[in-house]
Design brief:
It is built from four helices and four strands, in the order αβββαααβ.
């Protein structure tokens, strides 16, 4: 488990220090705002959806390392996915960080599944207060895709 924790820390820190896909994509046609009052994380997710496919997804905002890394990695994981694929990844990610699914064992065939690098967030389940930090971007993306006007809150 130590190797998984080291990977978790390395990937999270990389994406929090140098987040990817920050800003607003040209032609964004959906967006939503999210807020985590416990940690102070604030995020706006911008999405360009064309013919049921996420062509671009970016974010703006401020947050803790876990929140920022989750935003960054989510944008990388979902670009080019259909809305259905994005929903399935959301559900798998949510189950992983909330403890509803097993932590992948190192070396296990197919250990990362559809999550790929997102599996490093498995360590968040050990810190329930941080689950909200990790999932804020995902819930906000869901609101953007569903074109909901009300801001997302983790409370």
């Amino acid at each position: 488990m130590s190797d998984l924790r080291d990977l978790y820390q390395e990937v999270i820190l990389d994406h929090s220090r140098q987040p990817r896909n920050v800003g607003k994509p040209a032609g964004a046609n959906r967006h939503a705002d999210g807020f985590n009052p416990l940690c102070g994380d604030r995020v706006t997710i911008h999405v360009r959806v064309e013919e049921g496919v996420i062509r671009a997804v970016t974010f703006e905002g401020t947050g803790c390392a876990i929140s920022t890394a989750s935003c960054s990695m989510m944008t990388e994981a979902l670009a080019g996915k259909t809305l259905g694929e994005a929903q399935a990844i959301f559900e798998e990610f949510h189950d992983l960080v909330t403890g509803k699914s097993a932590v992948p064992a190192p070396g296990e065939p197919g250990e990362l599944g559809a999550l790929g690098k997102l599996a490093v967030f498995a360590g968040v389940r050990e810190f329930p207060i941080r689950v909200k930090c990790a999932t804020l971007a995902w819930h906000t993306l869901r609101a953007a895709v569903d074109q909901k006007d009300d801001p997302v809150s983790t409370e």
